[in-house]
Amino acid sequence: MEITKSSPLSLAVIVGSNREGRFGAVIADWFLANAAQHTDFTVDVIDLADPANDLPTALSYDPAPAVRDKLAGLSPRLAAADAFVVLTPEYNHSFPAPIKNLIDWHYTEWQAKPVGFVSYGGMSGGLRAVEQLRQVFAEMHAVTVRDTVSFHNAHGHFDDEGRHKDPTAPDAAAKTMLDQLAWWGHALRNAKSLHPYGG
Questions:
Q1: Integer Cα distance of 131 and 125 in angstroms
Q2: Single pTM value for the model
Q3: How confident is the model at residue 149 (pLDDT cuts 50, 70, 90)?
Q4: Of 138, 128, 44, nearest in space to 82 by CA
Q5: Mean pLDDT score, 99-117
Q6: What percent of the chain has pLDDT over 90?
Q7: 130 located within any domain
Q8: Residue 136 belongs to what domain range?
Q9: What is each CA distance from 37 to 44, 77, 88, 178, in whole angstroms?
């Protein structure tokens, strides 16, 4: 497909928790409904609880065939993305290990692309996890957008059917973040089409 200035951006949404009984699926469903309304994006969901995305924690320059098979399914999806949203909980003042593992298995796939965050947790709403991820993505030559979406004491915001009880403010926050991602996504994609990034 020919990429034009107005072509939709490919947005990879990374669901970062693989914890048993995780609340992340509820947050993800809410966010994906918002992302689906944003005409700048087509969405690809990368769920780190999916066994197909379960990479070993022992990094290797010469992965075993089974690992290469997983990377062959996962890495091209990251490379094809124009922008990312990382959906992260906060565990012990930080982000879950599967997110760091996914990041560390890749490098050029992140470069010169924007990253947004949706976080959840207790009183902090996952914001400490987000601030640490900003440092990690800076090392990957990615650009993190300013505005985030965070849910403090997340369980209390959703009903038993997974619907947000009062969606006005979080829906607005999601739109703001997606608007920023769209601006950076188009700007960086256009810039790279003229001058490939050499970080």
A1: 12
A2: 0.94
A3: very high
A4: 44
A5: 98
A6: 94
A7: yes
A8: 74-199
A9: 14, 21, 22, 10
